[in-house]
Amino acid sequence: MIRFLFKGLIRDRSRSLFPVLTVVIGVILTVFLYNWINGAEFNFIDSSARFSTGHVKIMSRAYAQEADQVPNDLALVGVESLLDELRNEHPAMIWTPRIRFGGLLDVPDAQGETRAQGPVMGLAVDLISATSAERGILKLEEALVRGRRPQNPGEALISENFAHRLDVRPGETATLISATMPGGMAVANFTIVGTIRFGVEAMDRGAMIADIADIRAALDMEDAAGEILGFFTDFIYRDPLASGLAARFNAVYRDEPDEFAPIMDTLSSQSGMGDILAMMKMFSGLVLAIFVGVMSIVLWNAGLMGSLRRYGEIGVRLAMGETKTHIYGSLILEALMIGALGSVIGTAVGLAASYYLQAHGLDIGFMMKNASLLISNVFRAKVSPASYVVGFIPGLAATFLGSAISGLGIYRRKTSQLLKELEA
Amino acid sequence: MIIPKLALRNILGAGLRTWLNVVVLSFAFVAIIWTQGLYEGMNAQAERASVAAALGGGQYWQEHYDPLDVLSLGEAHAAVPDSLQSLIADGKATAILAVQGTLYPKGRIQSVLIKGIDPDQKVLSLPSHFLKAEGDRIPALIGSRMAKSTGLEVGDTVILRWRDAHGAFDARDIEIVQVMKTVVQTIDQGQVWIPLSILRVLAGMEGEASLVVVAAGTLERPEEPGWIFRDLDFLLSDIRQLVQTKTAGATILYTVLILLAMLAIFDTQVLSIFRRKKEMGTLMALGFTRGRVIRLFTLEGALHGVLAAILAALYGIPLLTWYARQGWAMPEAMDSYGFAIGEKLFPIYSVGLVAGTTILVLVITTIVSFLPTRRIAKLKPTDALRGRLS
Amino acid sequence: MKKHARTYGLALLISALAEAQYPSGDWILQKIDENIGSDNKISHSLMIIQGRRGSRTVESRSWIQGDEKSFTEYLAPPREAETKMLKLGDQLWTYSPSTDRTILISGHMLRQSVMGSDLSYEDLMEDRKLKQMYDARVVGEEDYDGRACWVLELTARADNVAYHSRKIWVDKERFVSLKEDRFAKGGKLLKRTEVKDVQRMDGRWIPKKILFKDMLKTGVGTEFILNDVQFNADIPDYIFTKASLRR
């Protein structure tokens, strides 16, 4: 039976090619859109993740309580051994230590006295060492305005606007005044080798990026870090995995009374991210519901049309002795085959396109005026287990339903009527 | 003249089939506009929330006031000029005083910005009405993020310290009367809101303000020396930059949705035309030129689009308008993320969007109707009559 | 009527006599000054700062001229060693040898704490005499730490005094201020200074151990230990110049 139908499908283009093509296109669009919208969520949080929250973040408990104040006196210590532990137990993630700091940036005149001074917020990451993961995390080159990224000890970057205000040019020296971890005054010279654009006013006002080894020396924070960030290697955030990881990590330290014991937070539980993610999830859910709904109706209609067309043929078959039920069954089977074939092909193509976009992303930099560090220019899709299946809702289910419902018309008409439609 | 009439009669004559296709196409129409509206609305949400809660229709900044420069705050206050005072009296503006302070939650030190606001003001949606002072205590309002970072809750008392206009220290107990949930970080992070009159007295800055927020929709913009007017373009520049990126993503979304619409008519048009080879043959035998046949079928297809547009307008406009007014309320479950209760997502439909989409869909419908007819019309009439392809 | 008047008159007399027993606040402040004040001082001291993770001891030597000028060199711990600070009037300069930078500490920075202690740079810079800033009034007598003290209430004369009022306990015999509470305008206790050890040196009574505490935050406060002090020392003028920071 199936072979017969299959032959029929292959030979009659109007019965096979167009329906299948319709289903294929519909499913491709559905799968692609689903992955694209899920990827959009990723885009929004990607820059925040890279710059501040990580996918997970480890801080000492005391630090975490006041994290907004950047209390380096409460930072994590024993960071090297903690990092080793993390890399052993969770090799599928990238772990990197960072230090945030605040203070003043003071620019000297020829006598070494203050020429210009301004408050600064700083981020220290491992910029220089060969094994550093940060090169793949912070895309500094893209946001560089003048100069180059730090390659040697003692070099740092500041925001472009800040450099303007302080009248500092790449190559000049500026002194950081901050507090050491034990509480003393920290004073350290840096060579400003480049300027970057952050894209957020608060940071563009006065921010600097320096190498963690330099800051550790300046702030007396050997083997310490304000935070350790963890990233999934493909940089796609997965909340259930992250939450699970954090829960397990925190369980280990739960009974420790030490207020400097480490605690892990996920991206979504860090301030501000939850709101954005919630809004996005809701939006994408709604859009997808609308889309799948409409697409299903479209394909249902296609199935309907297909069956309606064939009343003539059906009339002949009835006259030849086929039972109505048998015909109905064959119609349904045909629809299922078309639906299945179309869904499979459509899903395959849709996924292929999505995977490509997931890996490479779409760079919309050409549309944007200025590249900046905190605003990502690359859009990605995100494939998930659900995207393997989502195409089948409109592709198979709807097509099937369409044929099923219209096929019912067979039962309501007399054979002669159906035959007549053959001549139409 | 005969062609339009014939086209119309053909499609109306096909009855259910036509209407099914038209309904489906109209669904696609409405879906596209609805989705775009939601997307725009989401982008505008941040702007909308900021404007409602913090920015108003623009702000007058005392000349030394700079929200990003804490060091300048000591000088950033001055007597409210008469012209602005009268706006305030009319309810068209409200004054805010900002003073640098230190909070001591649970014995820790935290630098904060103390902001004084009139509890009765109606210019901003910031819930200042919670600050109506009763008795001796000083009521204070903080945002949920601030509450989280300080560990404070409603009912807690905490010490707040600042320096008055002359530099003398003062410190009082304040009571947290409300924690507000808001998406707008600029009124939340590191800020404590207390009644303006109290702050003025305590800081020794009677009759003064650091900024005056003008209500949205107020047109008066008096010039005042020592005060700089910041319009919404200035105040929203950060948010707008972020939105720019989102628009690029929207283009892709739009494209996919248009393809959806195309698909909606593709099947019906192509299949139906394929099926009607005989009819085309008959028409040509009756004397229609190929061109006229093509035009007839193309027009039929286009009319599908027109009917779909009309139908979509019929049920779509009331539906979408209602939706635009209602907004889409966030379900309770999401509140755990700290979303403001009653926060809604409002779709935004621009005339350009609707008109553009309509035209685009109509054009596409026409094209998809046109392309297959050309091929068929190349048939010899005799072949076509027999239902054969040559 | 007459009976009341007599009672009333008697009460007045008694209170007047009682008040007459209290010296004037100004006089006490003057005596304090005579004890501790001097034009030039060279001192060697320790500052013990309690952090959340342990304590640090900062050792320094200071040259002080009157109220306007002071020069401090830090001796320990090693990170701080050779850092110098110079106060000239209302300007505070610091020199960091590791960076060879002379930096002006001004404005906002003055409100920050010194080395993480409970004192701010501003507190450290306080130069005007109490007499100048405050109206003093004796309000009672109390024992503090085994010493009989006058209790004085000080109220700021001008609006721009940082601490609107203070309360000091002054040793009746030695005229050393043993305890000082500093209050905000609204009356909240902000800072407390307690003297733990008073010794006789060079004909004066010198507080050797002082505990300084920010009363609003948790913590044990910052302890000062004065190891050595020379009064009316000979301090060459060049010490109080920016150039000397770099020597």
Structural account:
- Chain A folds into two domains: 2-47 and 275-423, no CATH class; 56-236, no CATH class.
- Chain A contains 17 helices and 14 strands.
- Chain A has helices at residues 2-11, 13-53, 61-65, 79-89, 134-137, 140-143, 160-166, 201-205, 212-218, 239-253, 273-309, 311-319, 324-360, 385-390, 392-407, 409-412, 415-422; strands at 56-60, 76-77, 93-108, 114-125, 144-147, 155-159, 173-179, 185-196, 207-211, 224-225, 227-232, 262-266, 362-363, 378-379.
- The longest helix of chain B has 40 residues, at 16-55.
- Chain C contains five helices and 13 strands.
- Chain C has a single domain (25-246), classed as Clam (outer membrane lipoprotein receptor (LolB), chain A).
- With 247 residues, chain C is α+β, with helices and mostly antiparallel strands.
- The mean pLDDT of chain C is 86.
- Chains in contact: A-B, A-C, B-C.
- The interface between A and B is large, with 58 and 61 residues.
Widest β-sheet, arrangement of strands of chain A: 3-4-9-6-8-7
- Describe the main β-sheet of chain A briefly: 6 strands, mixed, barrel
Q: What global shape of chain B is seen?
A: rod-shaped
Low-confidence stretches of chain A: none
Q: In which range does the helix fraction of chain B lie?
A: 40-55%
Terminal CA distance of chain A: 28 Å
Strand share of the residues of chain A?
15-25%
Task: Give the SSE string of chain B.
Answer: HHEEHEEEHEEEHEEEHHHHEEHH
**Number of helices, where a helix is a run of at least 4 consecutive DSSP H or I residues of chain B:** 11
Helix content of chain A: 40-55%
* Greatest interface (CB-CB under 8 A), with counts per chain: A-B, 58 and 61 residues
Are there runs of chain B of 5+ residues with pLDDT below 50, and where? Answer: 332-342
Major beta sheet summary of chain B: 9 strands, mixed
Estimated structural class of chain A = alpha+beta
Structural class of chain B: alpha+beta
C-alpha Rg of chain B (nearest Å): 32 Å
Q: What's the mean pLDDT score of chain B?
A: 80
The total of helices of chain A stands at 17
Characteristic key phrases:
heterotrimer, B: 390 residues, alpha+beta, 2 domains, 13 strands, C: 247 residues, outer membrane lipoprotein receptor (LolB), chain A, 13-stranded antiparallel sheet, 5 helices
